[in-house]
UniProtKB/TrEMBL annotation:
It comes from Pleomassaria siparia CBS 279.74. This is RRM domain-containing protein. The lineage of its organism: Eukaryota, Fungi, Dikarya, Ascomycota, Pezizomycotina. The keyword RNA-binding applies. PANTHER family: RNA RECOGNITION MOTIF-CONTAINING. Residues 1-28 are annotated as: Disordered.
Amino acid sequence: MSYSPESNHPRDQQASSPPDLGTPTTYYSPEFLRGKQVATGKLPVIVSSQRLQPTRRTEAKFVNELVQGTDEYISRYISILSFPDGRPAGVDQDSELHELLSRMKEYSVFNNAVPLWARGVYIRFDSLRDSCDAKYLFSSLHYATEYISPYEYAVAKSQDTIAVNDYEGQVVLALYIESVDVNDQGRAVKGYPETPLAKVNEGDLDEIAMHVQTVTDYYGPTRDIEHVSTDESRGLVRYRVEFQSINDANRAMQSLKLMTAMSYSKNMTFRWGTVIVGPWVGPPRNDSPQSKTPQKDDQGRLVGFLHQKARHIPTSSYLRHPADQHNKVQRERIERGTDVRTTVMLRNIPNKLDWMSLKALLDKECFGCYDFVYLRIDFKSACNVGYAFINFTDMRGMLQLVNELEHRTWHGYRSAKSAEVSYATIQGKEALVQKFRNSSVMQETPFCRPRLFMSTVDGIEVNDVRAVGREIAFPIPDNQAKLQRSMDSARTVGLYPPHGSGVTYDHRNRSSAYDRGTPRDLVESAAALQNSFNGPFSYDQVPPQVKRMIEQWYGNMFGKDHHCPVPYDYIPISCVTDYFAMTPYAANQFAPAQNPGVIGQTTVAANQVIRHGPVYAVAGPSRPYGGYRPNGY
């Protein structure tokens, strides 16, 4: 087998390259050349017939072909430029995420969306339709937004751009067509495997496309379907399908691999079945980093070449916790049937990985084997906290997850974490549902909530195996008292232990002369909260020396950015508020003043620095701003 030096297709009807076979090959045979005699000693060429080949198109059709910056461009990624009040995005993380998450709770278009704050506000959608609806919604609410490319989103997410898929949501689907003869009972009595497309003509392509549309509709709405090539010698007709949802595309690929779809034509002249299904691949976009950089896998090896079999290096990282010996997933005990636990905890997850990426990874490794996924989210940063809970219905899926993920790094993420899998404390779908249905986490933004999915076992029970992997609505609360207690606890303590200053931290550590909860204590608490957020000063008029002190305090409390202090303009306003709440400050006093001291004691001069409050680590008057303290402190 070799390549033909010249194509026999007309210029206006050049067939597309099959995505799974690369450049279309030309087969050589010494017997015949499409029924024509050839000279002895020459090798005739057999090419596919032109009658079933698609016409070549010139206009952009799929999302990856649209030109960014034009009116036709759409994307699954949206960047918020400014808020309705004119504030630019990317200045204050707390206030911007709080406003965005509040909006995401109000509209169902954000049910399958994930926010990201990285010196800017970004939203990733699973569906193109939801992305377009959300952009129209934002414009109606007077937000300034724009579509961005997957590469711009990956850069903002600090993700490796080499792992970006140009063709996300697109699938290649090949149907095997075979001409048949049927009897009076409508059963096939004779097939034509040598000439499978003998009874198929150009008019039958519309019916075949209709069958493709019917198959794909089982999994979700499609944006476009295109006939790309026909291989008459093998009886294959290939289609390129773009789904609205990435999740629907992944479900279609995995489901059709496990169970093919097949049927007969209306006039019973041929039968068809799905034989090849997978992600659509093709040349990278012109603005893609992959167009100039060779593709590499997560181990730095070039893609497209045979690789040596990876050696599994055992690790003893699970010995860090004494309980991990009991909670470790062991293949031998599962195969013997002595360990029947089904819920695992996946740890060491990169903080920027969202639940949609986690589900795509699970579908790739153990499709249809799980029914519950909960990636725990930090509500303040909108990032995960490093672990997730997964409940399996098939132990083969659990073992596959351990074999493919445990003790391995995460492809595409700049993280040195290696995944670890162990058993969770709460076991079983029923126990997990009962725990979370009455939890305050179900009142949070949708991307923070646990999710239920239909497994293969559930699909067989309801006689709908094509629905495997589809999300199921979470049960509503059945214990209002328990839900109210959970919400009250989340308001006072929070879902996560406090590890820094904040409103909750100040409330728990505020001293009071009255019993907690009494009317006088509530008045005092409200006054303290009002003073901490609405002080009689403007943050824009803070003197430079005080800004330097705040930068130093912020670095001591929360760490520095690349070994240098974080500039004042990039420090969250809530942290600046906490600083002033802990350090007395007056707006009308922008210069050091004499400390009147305590009656009966010696007055303390302003240049005598006393270590006090959160700035105790700041140096003395030897520094340019070290001698300054508000009110003489």
